[in-house]
Structures are given as structure tokens and as C-alpha cells.
Design brief:
With 749 residues, the chain is an alpha+beta fold. Helix content is 30%, strand content 27%. The structure holds alpha-L-fucopyranose. Alpha-L-fucopyranose binds next to loops.
Length: 749
């Protein structure tokens, strides 16, 4: 019998026996389509295929009827090396791994075709019927088992005959077959070994592997287990080269074969829901017409008119993608996550440090996936030995007295996973990375992590900047010769770099205070923070992007500049130097700049996501929600952000932005519903995190907060504000406080 129960955070679950969990929310969290993914552009399925991933291996599922094609990824499969020269040849590219195809030998047109991805279960499904036989395929990527799991079933016996093939997407390598197994392996020019294995378990009929394929005949059902690995290790002392992956992949498959599909699925769902189920979001109900549309049509309509259930699905999609492509112990999400389908992908599918990888991790803390954030820290820490050496020998990074750099490290705009870097220096990216280390502490309050990991890294980056800052005649400090990402001239004191350094210094002072260490160093950093040139306000009321509005006769800051980056607004978001409450003049100038940047011209999917958070920080919920609609207009049919081409950052950025509209905590306290748009009059959210170690649940009606529950995970004192009324809270670890509308009675909207 089915048992319904309410999960913590309001997810309604139905247990179908012990192994199957179906989680649903007020609006089902399912992307669905009435046809297979189509080939677009240069022969890519990336815009339409459905993504699954276990943090290490991923697949794009196309769902073809006569032929299922899955494009496989393994997130360490990179060409390139550690060479410090800083060019793309040595940085290399993130590779697609293999194509797994299942030929089903039918050319008949299907009926009732449906292809879907259920975010609440982390499972994709394809179903259709032909000549009275109903076919069903289920796919999931199990972090528990370390494998992809695929099952094909039908309601008539002996309905499956065909072949399975595994094709290397690059030249070289070999494919072998034996009994029930296909094995593809090869070695990249940099020495990295890679391997994929597919095991088939038929029920009824028979299956034989031969000549690099598996034939199956008259099977009732098929179970496919897919494993993959490379010899990469995140360890500079081993030159990032570890063991041949064969043994580990073989072992994972052997282990999984001991379990049934239902057992594997139950373990997968348990593991996934432990992360995904932490946050529940309801932004109100969509219309029956909206709900009836397949996702590709619906997201186009949502670019015009608010579709609240699709907006909450978009929020959860970012969380789904994060859990699927970024797990502790693994690599972080690159530009295409685990869903790159090319061997010379756009921007090398690299780690881009001037907005993109940072945006990938904006939702991690606030949407309660802080474990996923650790993949970024592990990568950065593993690269440091190489980055330090590179920085020491670079003539571009000389200290102000003209000597080669000794302390700390700097990075270029793009990097790989072996210490190698590509394009142009992004000198303050070191401090932007440091912000992520700090935020992990700010939300989680883990002193051990601050002591051993975050603070040493932040301190080292501060030391780099102590050696590199330029002193102006009036004693102000500026970052010399820097670039507002991909925009305008290289100048001293560009606002982007100044604001990032303010953030670094401010966070480091707070970190040293929290730990009670390094008094002298802490005071030096505090003094440097206070001497940093602060971005000015220009002639048309804008926040200046460069220190001087003009260069010679040329106006640098112009009101009709619609550049995609909003780098000079870093201090507003994700930084905290600029805020409505604490620096109202700078916040007003930031609003002028943001409006001028607009949402036409050189805007990309990630631009809308950033602008959404910026409006949220300016407490303009309607403008923020407008950016969500613009974001829908810049998505692919599978809801991936469409730069073009597909890029993951916008998906993560928009998830963080929606959280930022509902809850903020960057000004020393917790602010409830700071940017609620009129289009979300009624709703609720639970499981969002606030700095200081809090979890927050909120309910609102008629655009007004009706209840808030603030739970403390670390016993920190704080305050809760709602429309100007501030309530002090002093909870012990594990305690909660419920606030309802009467606590905020004198709040007038
Ligand atoms: C940044 C952006 C581009 C693109 C690239 C991957 O450099 O300016 O728009 O997103 O990263």
C-alpha cells in the first residue's frame, strides 16, 4: 500500500513499497516534452537533451524512438597540462567522453510519446507505444553506485531486440566486448587514461557482446549499467596523474550487479533527496493553460507572462544541476557542467574566473547545498602549488618595486584542472575565489574549516595584494593596471577590482576577529581596506566603472553602454560594500548604472541572472522578476541557459537570485522578503540558509509576510528585519523562533 507522508520542508512523498520514492510538490517538478530531442546547430543535442549526472559522470539523453543516443561525460577528461605559459594550446579543453547508442530497430511512429525529467526524483523517463505495446525507459545517475543506470521495459514480453554500441567521440582508443560487457578506453596526448564500460543485464531473451557491440534479442526488459573514469587525480604532487581507471570502474560495475534496479534506484533517491529535499519553494499557482504546455513551449511563454510554478521549477532546476554535477571529492561545475557534447567546446568548456565559475556557486550556500561548494574549494586548493610557481615567474605580476612576485598567487581568466591557464590575467580573481571560501564559513560557521582552510587561503591572497597595491599621492590604494572584465581599457583602480579587494580585506578582518588571531596583520588589512579608493559617482548619477569617467577626451562611462558584464556592481552583489541601508548614495548610483545597462544589446543568459540578484539587493522585486522572465527568453528548450550556446552559469545564477529575492543576510542580520514582486502575492519557502548559521522558512499572503521560522544551527546572535522593523534574536544551537504577522504589526507596505 502507498504511504503518504510529509518530508521536513513540506515535500509530499509517497512511498511505493520500500524502494520507490515519488516526491512531488505543489507544482510537479518535471520538465516534459512530447518529442525526442532534436539535433540543432552544428549537430548538437545540447539544447534539447535531458541532463542527468552523479557529480562525476553525466549524460545527455536524447530519447529517440528507433535509436536512443546518450552523450556521456566524465568531468576530469581534459586535454592540456600545467604549463605556465598561459595559452590555450597548453590549457587544453574539456572533452566529451563517448556516445552510447541503443538501436531498437523500429521505424514506426510512436503514440503518446513523452520524455521527461523529474527533479524531485532525479530521474528521466521516456515512454511511448507502438502497435499496442507500451514501452518505457528510465534513467538515473547514481552517486551512491558511481554509475549511470538505465532500464528499458515494455508491457508485452519479448519486445526488445537490437544493439548497444559505445563509441569514442575522439580518434584513437579501442572498444572491446566480452559476454555482457562493452569497454572503451584510450589515452589522451597528455597521458591521461580514460575508460567507459557498459554492462547489460537482459531479462528474458538473450544478449551477446561481440565485435564492439552487444546484440540483444526478444528481451522482456534490459538493464544497462554505465561506468567511467580517468587517471586524473586532484593532486599537484603527482602531476595530476593517478591510477589507470580500469580497476575502479570494473569494481563499481561488479558491486552494482549485486542489486536490482529498484534497489539501486531507492539508494539513489535517498542520497539525492537528502540534499534536494532541504529546500521547498512555492511561488503560487500557474494557470491550467500554462500547466498543460510542454516545457519547451511553456518556457517561451514564461518569457512574456509570469508562470509561478515554472519559476519555482527553474529555481529547483539550478539545485538539481548543482547536485548532479558538483559533489564533494569531485571536480566543480565548468562552463558546460557535465554536459559538454563537443571535443572543441565553446570557451574550451573551462573554468572562467571573471564571473562564470563564481556564478555557478552563488546558490550553493543560500539554497542549502553547501557540500556541493566544496568541489570548488578542492579544485582551487589542488591548483595552488602550480599557480604559486607560475605567479613567481611571471613578468606580468611584478610587485610595485619591480620584483618578481614572492607571496601568494594570481590567475588568468580561464584555467583547467592541472594548474594550466589560458587567456588574459584576471588579477583580482584570486580575491573573488577567496570570497567563496569565506562565504562557506559565513553561512556554516564551521570554525575548524575557517582555521584550517579558509583563513590561510584568504591571508595568502591578502599578502599578495599587500605586495601589489599602488599608493596614490593622496594615500589611497588602487589595484594597478586592471581590467573591468572584457570591457574598456586596462586602468588603475577599476571599480571591479577595488570592490573585490574591499570584500577580501573586509572578510579577512572578520575572519581574524572570529578566530582571535593575527592582531597586527588584521589591523594592517583593516587599514588597507579603509584606504582603498571607493568607486565614484559620475556625471549622470552612475556608479563609475573606471576611476576616471574620461580617458583623454573619451567618455568611458556612457548611459548607452549595454555591455553584458556588470562588474562595477560587484560591491552590490555578490559583494557587500554597497547596500541600500549602509551606503544609500552608492546604492542609488548602482541603480542608475544597472538601469542603463538595461536588458537589450550585449546581454547573455548569465547577465539576466546577475541583474536579477542586483535588483534584489536594491529591493526592487518587480524589476528582479522581470529579469527572470528575460532569463526564460534566453533558455534552450531543456531550460539550460543559452548564451548562446548552452552555458550552465545562468541556471545557477538565477537560482541564487530567486533566493536573494526572498531572503538576504549580507548586512549583519536577516532580512525577510526584501524583494517580493507583485506577481508572487502568495507563497512559501523553507530551508533557505542565512549567514550566521540559520535556516529560514517563510509564508506570505497578499504580498505580506504571515509567518517566519528562524532556526539556529550554531547559536549565533542576529536580528530579523521585515520592512524596517528589526527584531533581535538570540537562539541557542538547535533552537527555533517563530515570528508571525503580529510581530511585524506596525509594518506598512
Ligand atoms: C565570459 C563572458 C562571455 C562568456 C564567457 C564564457 O568571459 O564575457 O560572455 O560567458 O565568459
Amino acid at each position: 500500500m502507498n504511504t503518504k507522508f510529509l518530508l521536513r520542508n513540506g515535500l509530499i512523498c509517497t512511498f511505493l513499497g520500500a524502494s520507490q520514492v515519488i516526491a512531488s510538490t505543489l507544482g510537479p517538478l518535471t520538465l516534459w516534452y512530447d518529442q525526442p530531442a532534436a539535433l540543432v546547430g552544428k549537430g548538437t543535442y545540447i539544447n534539447e537533451a535531458l541532463p542527468i549526472g552523479n557529480g562525476k559522470i553525466g549524460a545527455l539523453i536524447t530519447g529517440g524512438v528507433g535509436k536512443e543516443l546518450l552523450r556521456l561525460n566524465e568531468n576530469s577528461l581534459w586535454t592540456g597540462d600545467s604549463n605556465p605559459t598561459g595559452d590555450f594550446k597548453t590549457m587544453g579543453e574539456y572533452q566529451s567522453l563517448a556516445d552510447l547508442s541503443i538501436e531498437l530497430g523500429t521505424t514506426n511512429a510512436p503514440q503518446d510519446y513523452r520524455r521527461s525529467l523529474d527533479l524531485a526524483r532525479s530521474e528521466a523517463t521516456v515512454s511511448y507505444s507502438i502497435n499496442g505495446v507500451s514501452y518505457r525507459r528510465e534513467y538515473f545517475a547514481s552517486h551512491e553506485a558511481g554509475l549511470l543506470v538505465i532500464r528499458l521495459t515494455a508491457d508485452h514480453p519479448a519486445s526488445y531486440s537490437g544493439t548497444v554500441a559505445l563509441q569514442n567521440t575522439r580518434k584513437g582508443g579501442i572498444t572491446q566486448s566480452s559476454t555482457d560487457l562493452l569497454l572503451m578506453k584510450g589515452t589522451l596526448p597528455n597521458g591521461m587514461k580514460y575508460e567507459a564500460q557498459v554492462v547489460i543485464v537482459p531479462e528474458g531473451g538473450n544478449a551477446t557482446a561481440h565485435d564492439g557491440i552487444i546484440d540483444f534479442k526478444a528481451c522482456n526488459s534490459l538493464l544497462l549499467l554505465v561506468g567511467a573514469g580517468t587517471s586524473y587525480v586532484m593532486d599537484a604532487s603527482r602531476k595530476f596523474q593517478g591510477e589507470d581507471p580500469q580497476e575502479a570502474v570494473t569494481q563499481r560495475l561488479a558491486n552494482a550487479k549485486k542489486y536490482t534496479f529498484d534497489e539501486l534506484r531507492a539508494a539513489h533517491e535517498k542520497d539525492y533527496l537528502a540534499l534536494f529535499g532541504r529546500v521547498y519553494l512555492n511561488l503560487g499557482c500557474s494557470t491550467p493553460q500554462q500547466k498543460a504546455m510542454p516545457t519547451d513551449k511553456r518556457r517561451a511563454a514564461a518569457a512574456q507572462i509570469t508562470d509561478p510554478e515554472l519559476e519555482s521549477l527553474l529555481f529547483q532546476y539550478g539545485r538539481y544541476l548543482m547536485i548532479s554535477c558538483s559533489r564533494p571529492g569531485g571536480l566543480p561545475a565548468n562552463l558546460q557542467g557535465l554536459w559538454n557534447d563537443s571535443n572543441n567546446p565553446p570557451w574550451h568548456s573551462d573554468y572562467h574566473a571573471n564571473i562564470n565559475i563564481q556564478m555557478n556557486y552563488w546558490p550553493a550556500e543560500v539554497t542549502n547545498l553547501s557540500e556541493c561548494h566544496t568541489a570548488l574549494f578542492d579544485l582551487v586548493l589542488s591548483q595552488l602549488p602550480v599557480w604559486r610557481e607560475t605567479s613567481k615567474v611571471s613578468n606580468d605580476l611584478k610587485t610595485l618595486d619591480g620584483k618578481l612576485s614572492i607571496r601568494g598567487w594570481a590567475i588568468r581568466t580561464s584555467h583547467n584542472i592541472m594548474g594550466g591557464m589560458g587567456w588574459n590575467w584576471d588579477k583580482t580573481a584570486n580575491a573573488w575565489y577567496a570570497q567563496h571560501f569565506w562565504e562557506h564559513y559565513a553561512f556554516g560557521c564551521d570554525r575548524e574549516y575557517l582555521t584550517t582552510t579558509a583563513y590561510p587561503l584568504m591571508k595568502e591572497v591578502c599578502q599578495y595584494w599587500q605586495d601589489h597595491l599602488k599608493v596614490l599621492p593622496d594615500d589611497r590604494l588602487v589595484v594597478p593596471d586592471c581590467w573591468s572584465p572584457e570591457h574598456g581599457p586596462h586602468e588603475d583602480g577599476v571599480s571591479y577590482s577595488q570592490e573585490i579587494l574591499w570584500d577580501l580585506f573586509n572578510n579577512t578582518v572578520q575572519a581574524a576577529d572570529a578566530l582571535g588571531v593575527d592582531k597586527e596583520f588584521r589591523d594592517q588589512v583593516a587599514s588597507a581596506r579603509d584606504k582603498l579608493a571607493v568607486p565614484g559617482v559620475g556625471s549622470w548619477g552612475q556608479l563609475l566603472e573606471w576611476m576616471n569617467e574620461k580617458k583623454g577626451d573619451k567618455l568611458l562611462d556612457t548611459p548607452n553602454d549595454h555591455h553584458r558584464h556588470t562588474s562595477h556592481l560587484f560591491g552590490l552583489y555578490p559583494g557587500r560594500q554597497i547596500s541600500v541601508a549602509l551606503t544609500p548614495k552608492l546604492a542609488a548610483a548602482a541603480l542608475v548604472s544597472l538601469k542603463a545597462r538595461g536588458d537589450v544589446g550585449d546581454v547573455r543568459e548569465w547577465s539576466f541572472a546577475w541583474r536579477c540578484s542586483l535588483y534584489a539587493r536594491l529591493h526592487d522585486g518587480d524589476a528582479a522578476e522581470g529579469q527572470i522572465r528575460r532569463f526564460f527568453g534566453a533558455t534552450c528548450p531543456n531550460l539550460f541557459g543559452n548564451h548562446p550556446p548552452m552555458q550552465m552559469d545562468g541556471n545557477f545564477g538565477i537560482t541564487a537570485a530567486i533566493a536573494e529575492m526572498l531572503l538576504q543576510s549580507h548586512e549583519g542580520g536577516i532580512w525577510l522578503l526584501p524583494a517580493l514582486p507583485v506577481n508572487w502575492p502568495e507563497g512559501s519557502v523553507s530551508g533557505l540558509r542565512a549567514r550566521g548559521g540559520f535556516e529560514v522558512a517563510l509564508t506570505w499572503k497578499g504580498g505580506v509576510l504571515t509567518e517566519a521560522v528562524v532556526s539556529s544551527k550554531s547559536g549565533t546572535k542576529s536580528s530579523v528585519s521585515y520592512y524596517g522593523k528589526k527584531i533581535a534574536i538570540n537562539l541557542k544551537t538547535g533552537e527555533s523562533r517563530k515570528l508571525n504577522s503580529s510581530d511585524f504589526l506596525d509594518v506598512a507596505r
